[in-house]
Amino acid sequence: MGKRYVVDTGLRNAFLGKRPSDVGHVLENAVFMELLRRGFEVTVGKIDKVEIDFVAVNHTDRVYVQVCRTLADEKVEQREFSPLLAVADAYPKFVLSMDRIGCFREGVRRLNIVDFLMGASLS
């Protein structure tokens, strides 16, 4: 069974309970909903055995997005960046996190999730 996202995370919490470990899932859910709101068709990407959280496509654009709570740990950074670095095309690639540091690494842009949700472009 694939990933599932909800419109109302409050209902999700009511049914499943709220746990501190859910922060990453809640952030991913918010990004999914925002991509839909911006008019993208959103799917999960697969390259070999690794997964890209979102491949978002509209009539003119394609963008690859990974979502995580923080990139403070080197293992997490490797886990989030490696699927995007495996993509051979030149479409934009992003890692969205709660970190305030925005920078590029090998063509992949780090962007704060709040900035994205407040309207920052993915182009």
List keywords for this structure.
6-stranded mixed β-sheet; DUF4143; 123 residues; Trna Endonuclease, Chain: A, domain 1; DUF4143 domain-containing protein; alpha/beta
Topology, element by element:
Elements: H1 9-16, H2 23-37, E1 41-47, E2 50-57, E3 62-67, H3 74-85, E4 93-97, E5 104-105, E6 108-112, H4 113-117
Short synopsis of the structure:
Helix content is 33%, strand content 27%.
Provide a descriptive summary of the structure in words.
The protein is an alpha/beta fold and 123 residues long. The chain has one domain: Trna Endonuclease, Chain: A, domain 1 (3-Layer(aba) Sandwich). Helices cover 33% and strands 27% of the residues. It is built from 4 helices and 6 strands, in the order H-H-E-E-E-H-E-E-E-H. The chain has helices spanning 9-16, 23-37, 74-85, 113-117; strands at residues 41-47, 50-57, 62-67, 93-97, 104-105, 108-112. Strands 1-2-3-4-6-5 form a 6-stranded mixed beta sheet. It is globular. Residues 3-68 form the DUF4143 domain. This is DUF4143 domain-containing protein. Pfam families: DUF4143.
